[in-house]
Design brief:
The chain is mainly β. Helices cover 0% and strands 51% of the residues. It is built from no helices and eleven strands. The strands form two sheets. Strands 2, 4, 5, 6, 9, 10 and 11 form a seven-stranded mixed beta sheet that branches. The chain has a four-stranded antiparallel beta sheet with strand order 1-3-8-7, with no helix packed on it. Strand 5 and strand 6 form a beta hairpin.
Amino acid sequence: QVQLVASGGGSVQAGGSLTLSCAASGFTFSAYTMAWFRQAPGKEREFQTSITWAGDRQNYADSVKGRFTISRDNAKNTLFLQMNSLKPEDTAVYYCAAGVGYNPRNYDYWGQGTQVTVSS
């Protein structure tokens, strides 16, 4: 019923850019805060960025501030992550998630993730 499908991952050289997308269905997308998390090999999943239902409030982890930009298109039920100045340490599986509130502690829905690999 609820589905979050992430796409756009791939391999890129350090310093390059990549755009991820997350197509949502089965719930009221425009009523949820959306977020991106990532999990690198051998590490725990960590929060990267979130955006509220209207897109007016955004939050970023320090590691990606100034490099990544989160956005959403409620008409298309799609979440985006523009990734610039990529570093090898950005290599991870990136997951999109949906939650309630301005800054949810727990997220209700999760996607399958998309692999991003940054080479040096």
